[in-house]
Design a protein that fits this description.
The chain is α/β, with parallel strands linked by helices. The chain contains 15 helices and 16 strands.
């Protein structure tokens, strides 16, 4: 399709984001690639933001966007929510300090709230990110089972460390058979040993998973998955129930990584929707109200491997402590259970307890509106997802896993996304959409209008 040069999405982007371009040039002299998290990068350069308010972001050029990235899903109450600001200020005033470095009440208050929503969390620990949460879950599983390989699913992301940085976004040509995928590294600096120790499973294919798991039954201690891949491709019920049964039989710890799905698909996460009890759960993002946090919780006997004992303190210099250290799974962190962050998280949960259904219904309105716009032009598109997350997938086929997603029309989706940026609709190109309590019918209407303009420009007007 011929697009006039001035209408080319990248040209329009460059025209509207000159200050971002300038800033990113400067940033390259400070941070590798100009970013402090690789995920923030996209071509030709990421938009540099200056202000957030409710559902909106304003960039350094003064462009205003309706934000559907919401800090990769973390901000389920939108930007700068009054109740969150108040909660952290009150916590600070009440405590008289930002950090105790000792147990405090809110750790238990928040923990009980989490346990009521996630009954599988018989005991829990706080961490400072989702990455740390999945890492702790995997370490707990290894300590408990004394089996040191893990199995993860093709296309699933669990954070930025070697053990799980395999086959997150592999080239299908190199990734081996669909029912027995090979582990492909997603980073430099990975060892052959690490590659052997991470086994890759195909999502939503129970027979294939069972075969692989049985083959490695004496080596795999943990099976970790996003119960909805990327937060939006649901496991089928028979798959997730079957996986629960087989991991139990083979004495593998089943870890639900609900860093994206926690609170976003339902207050109790995907596990409440499926009625499946994982052995361990990792939470992050929404549960910190926009601040860095993670939670790991699960079966008491597994979690208790991390309980300190007088005879096993890694920082105790006495000889008796040294002898017991190997009996405890050491987990620590200066900032774990940070009071202001827990206050923000608790206020977020309390607000969502009242408002989550309205976030879901506004999300459904947007999904339906978008499907109608594509369908009126005869373009196959599915708004795949549940609760407050979905992705725009250009396909008419069923989407069950990573390979299905790769077969959708990603280049057209990317072109649409670049055009939408110039229309003031923000998400990182190709990313999923997350909504918040700040998104109202007004923002949905503006978004559908912007989509309509972009689709008309690219494909012509609606035919019916
Ligand atoms: C499912 C999942 N697990 C783990 C992580 C890592 O969380 P964090 O970025 O807070 O370290 C993410 C982040 O996107 C995620 O989506």
């Amino acid at each position: 399709m011929a697009i006039e040069r001035t209408h080319h999405p990248v040209m329009m982007f460059l025209e509207k984001t000159k200050a971002s371009a300038q800033f990113m040039k400067e940033a390259e002299h400070v941070m590798p690639g100009g970013v402090t998290a690789n995920i923030k990068h996209f071509a030709p350069y990421p938009i540099v933001m200056k202000k957030g308010s409710g559902a909106y972001l304003t960039d350094v050029d003064g462009n205003v966007y309706i934000d559907y990235l919401l800090a990769y899903g973390a901000l389920m109450l939108g930007h700068g929510h009054q109740a969150i600001q108040q909660a952290i200020m009150e916590q600070l005033q009440q405590d008289g300090t930002v950090l105790f470095g000792a147990p405090h009440e809110l750790e238990v208050t928040m923990g009980k709230r989490l346990q009521s929503l996630y009954p599988s969390m018989e005991r829990l620990r706080y961490t400072n990110s989702g990455t740390e949460a999945t890492l702790l879950a995997i370490r707990l599983a290894a300590a408990y089972t004394e089996k040191f390989k893990i199995a993860k699913f093709e296309g699933h992301y669990h954070g930025g460390y070697n053990q799980v940085l395999y086959s997150v976004n592999p080239s299908i040509e190199a990734a081996g058979p669909a029912d027995e995928p090979v582990a492909l590294p997603e980073s430099m600096g990975m060892t052959d040993g690490e590659q052997r120790d991470t086994i890759i499973l195909p999502f939503n294919d129970l027979d294939a998973c069972e075969k692989i798991l049985r083959k490695h039954k004496d080596e795999i201690g943990a099976v970790i998955l996003e119960p909805m891949q990327g937060g939006f491709i649901p496991a089928t019920e028979s798959f997730i129930k079957g996986l629960r049964a087989v991991t139990k039989e083979l004495e593998m710890v089943l870890i639900f990584d609900e860093v994206k799905t926690g609170f976003r698909v339902g207050l109790g996460g995907a596990q409440a929707i499926y009625g499946v009890r994982p052995d361990l759960t990792a939470l992050g993002k929404v549960v910190g109200g926009g601040f860095p946090v993670g939670v790991v919780g699960g079966a008491k006997d597994i979690m208790m491997t991390s309980a300190p004992r007088a005879s096993a303190d890694v920082f105790d210099s006495s000889q008796s402590a040294k002898s017991g250290a190997k009996e405890v799974l050491f987990h620590s962190g200066t900032y774990n259970g940070h009071p202001m962050i827990l206050a923000a998280g608790l206020k977020t949960i309390m607000t969502l307890e009242e408002k989550i259904t309205s976030v879901f219904s506004i999300t459904d309105t947007l999904k339906e509106g978008l499907e109608a716009l594509f369908s009126a032009r005869g373009i196959p598109m599915k708004a795949v997802g549940s609760g407050s997350i979905f992705s725009v997938v250009l396909t008419d086929r069923e989407i069950l896993n990573y390979r299905d997603l790769q077969r959708a029309d990603l280049s057209t989706r990317k072109m649409i996304d670049m055009n939408l940026l110039s229309e003031g609709i923000y998400t990182k190109p190709l990313n999923r959409y997350s909504l918040s309590t700040a998104h109202t019918s007004n923002e949905i209407e503006q978004t559908l209008d912007a989509y309509d303009r972009v689709l008309t420009k690219l494909f012509g007007g609606a035919t019916s």
